[in-house]
Design brief:
The protein has about 260 residues and is mostly beta strands. The chain has helices spanning about 45-55, 110, 130-140, 210-220, and strands at about 1-5, 15-20, 40-45, 70-75, 80-90, 95-105, 125-130, 150-155, 160-165, 170-175, 205-210, 225-235, 235-245, 250-260. The strands form 3 sheets. It has a 6-stranded antiparallel sheet with strand order 1-2-14-13-12-7, covered by helices on one side. A hairpin with a 7-residue loop joins strand 13 (about 235-245) and strand 14.
């Protein structure tokens, strides 16, 4: 299953292109359509999130059982909807049924064909990020100091996150991180294979400037990730691969594209 969240990259927006294994979400799954059994819909992320919270809520209270949730595509009053039927047992042992409809729009196949991932050059460096929870704590502390931050990394396992203004300059650094090899297909490069170059200096730092708010949107994925790889395209973008579970047995991967802010100074 593919989930795409696209915003205006020209305004520093974050795009997410994810591939999630069906068995990581559903215990039973059936879909039929005239478009090779594929259905693409657009949905409000806020409305979908509210429905998913409803599905999770019965299991969060002490003494309540986990809920069984059935998701269906339907049409009600000539409007396509995604219906969530949630069955759970209350603390008193009574069966509870909740139905939540989320309005959707079915995309035409010709419009689906126009969906394209952002074009990026070959990344200059790949690095395994430290805990996203710890990163989020650091970035939250930097946020009051500047609206823009710099992320830099090199092939020697070093990572830097910095803010710099007329009033303050702060650098936070990590060392000893892994630099995993990644093929061109995995790194989503859409440029032709470049000619062979001399080996790069492993200590050279490559970086991007980005909005603090954009980076924090990415860091909100920490709840699903055990492994995150950052690929930096110098002064162009940062591509982040967030694996759901361990890489060897990942239930899927969320690919984040954060465009760089051009420093006119």
């Amino acid at each position: 299953m593919h989930i795409i969240c696209s915003s205006d990259a020209n305004e520093g927006g974050v795009q997410i292109w994810s591939q999630i294994k069906i068995e990581a979400i559903f215990t039973d799954y059936r879909i039929q359509s005239n478009a090779n059994n594929q259905i693409t819909v657009t949905v409000s992320s806020e409305a979908l999130s509210a429905a998913l919270r409803s599905a999770a809520a019965p299991a969060t209270g002490g003494g309540a059982s986990e809920a069984d949730t059935v998701m269906k595509l339907a049409k009600k009053n000539d409007q396509a909807v995604m219906t969530f039927e949630i069955l759970s047992t209350s603390r008193a042992g009574k069966r509870v049924r909740i139905e939540h409809d989320v309005r959707i729009d079915i995309m035409r196949p010709e419009d689906v064909d126009k969906l394209q991932e952002p074009m990026c050059p070959e990344p200059d460096v790949h690095i395994l990020l430290p805990s996203l929870t710890k990163l989020r704590t650091v970035v939250h502390r930097l946020q009051p100091m500047s609206k823009v931050l710099a992320v830099r990394a090199n092939a020697s396992g070093q990572l830097q996150i910095s803010v710099s203004t007329d009033a303050v300059k702060v650098d936070v650094a990590w060392s000893g991180l892994a630099n995993p090899p990644m093929g061109r297909d995995v790194a989503a490069s859409q440029e032709p294979e470049p000619p062979e170059e001399e080996e790069k200096d492993p200590t050279q730092l490559y970086g991007v400037l980005m909005k603090v708010t954009s980076f924090l949107k990415f860091l909100s994925s920490s709840s699903v990730s055990t492994t995150t790889i950052a690929c930096i395209c110098q002064n162009h973008a940062m591509i982040l691969y967030v694996y759901i579970g361990e890489v060897a047995d990942a239930g899927g991967v969320l690919t984040f594209y954060i465009p760089a802010i051009i420093d006119d100074g």
